[in-house]
Design brief:
Aminopeptidase, alpha+beta, M20 family peptidase, Peptidase_M20, metal-binding, 11 helices, Alpha-Beta Plaits, metal ion binding, 25% strand, hydrolase, 2 domains
């Protein structure tokens, strides 16, 4: 299997180049669907059935399993969208510099798509029936919070024993066994405008009221427990000499445990239920909509299986936690043992210098293939 994968390294890079050189930002439906069409053809060549879920605004999600699959116990999730707008590829297409490949989405996560296909090819090469034990979801809006694909992921996670999420490995090669959950709130304060020089007493400052709310919201932070409340963007007022009639705060919430969601939602509503500045009113929208991926007992067991597979092929596998959200949160919240970061190693995702460590592509493909085989035994 290892010899087969090593022999396909150049072929894998050629497919990565093809995928990277397609603009497939979350809002570029035609580009995401072009990526999907290429991948659909590859899977069908391998004897898989591809169920395309049509979407009007975003790209089309796909559910994929082998034609002989009956009740697969492993779910794999890999997203086809990137964060980059249309026109990015024309400015900086796929390139190779030394041991690294560069380009929009090269590691997050077009290389992972190729890794998954070639892991399946390697399993088929040695006659492994484990390819019939996997269900794959290729989704199109992970970078936006999996708006259309979350229900699909949650539906197909039910009844599964293991979830392998194909985000890239961390820069040091670590897999991800915990992710913070979170959400966003928009707090709108309405006051009453007045000239700040002529009749300030007749005004009701929305900005002043919002200032009180920001302080109260930030007091909810508890970094030791993994709770983060951050007012990262504010807007308000019409001119410097006018008592502000409106103000808006955009709030980012992060949690480490599922039960923290109910606590924070309650506290935020309490804070916004009353005003400090008489005559102002508050409206609030939003929710904590992404559960955390917790490092529980079943995830720990799955990690140790992957770690043992790593030892077998001479690869030291470590784990880490990350503050960012991802699709692993959805599989984990349905009770499935979940490990993320099974893609190749790279870094600087979402930036102009996003890169793939090319030499990690064959070793991570081998790790994935042997993990699927081991979990199916």
């Amino acid at each position: 299997m290892e010899t087969f994968i090593q022999g396909k390294k150049t072929e894998m890079l050629q497919l990565i180049e093809q995928l990277v050189n397609i603009d497939s930002g979350s809002y570029v439906k035609k580009g995401v669907d072009r990526v999907g069409a290429i991948l659909k053809e590859k899977y069908e060549e391998l004897g898989f059935i591809v169920d395309v879920k049509e979407e009007k605004v975003f790209g089309n999600n796909m559910v994929i399993q082998h034609k002989n699959a009956k009740d697969p116990k492993i779910i794999l999730v890999a997203h086809m969208d990137t964060v980059f707008p249309e026109g990015t590829v024309a400015k900086r297409p796929f390139t190779i510099e030394g041991s690294r490949a560069y380009g929009p989405g090269v590691v997050d996560m077009k290389s992972s798509q190729v890794e998954l296909i070639y892991a399946i090819k390697a399993l088929q090469k040695v006659g492994s029936k484990s390819v019939e034990n996997i269900l794959i979801i290729l989704n199109v809006d992970e970078e936006l919070g999996s708006i259309t694909s979350r229900p699909l992921i949650e539906k197909h996670s039910k009844g599964k024993e293991y979830a392998l999420i194909m985000e890239p490995a961390r820069k040091d090669g670590s897999l991800v066994t915990a992710r913070r959950g979170g959400g966003h709130y928009e707090i709108v304060v309405k006051g009453k405008a007045a000239h700040s020089g002529i009749e300030p007493e007749n005004g009701r400052s929305a900005i002043e009221e919002l200032a009180y709310k920001i302080i109260q919201l930030h007091q909810l932070n508890d970094h030791e427990k993994g709770i983060s409340v951050n007012v990262g963007l504010i807007e308000g007022g019409s001119s410097v000499n006018t008592v502000s009639a409106n103000a808006v705060a955009h709030v980012d919430i992060r949690i480490s445990q599922l039960e923290q969601a109910a606590y924070l939602e309650k506290k935020i509503k309490e804070i916004c239920s009353k005003t400090e500045v008489a005559g102002t009113k508050i409206e609030i929208e939003g929710a904590i909509n992404r559960p955390p991926m917790e490092f529980n007992h079943q995830t720990e067991e799955l990690f140790h299986i992957i770690q043992d597979v790593g030892k077998e092929i001479g690869l030291k596998v470590k784990y880490t936690a990350t503050g960012g959200g991802g699709d692993a949160s959805f599989t984990s919240a349905t009770g499935v043992a979940t490990v993320d970061g099974l893609g190749p190693v790279g870094g600087n995702a979402h930036s102009e210098r996003e890169y793939l460590e090319i030499d990690t592509l064959p070793e991570r493909t081998l790790l994935l293939a042997k993990t699927i085989h081991r979990l199916s035994e």
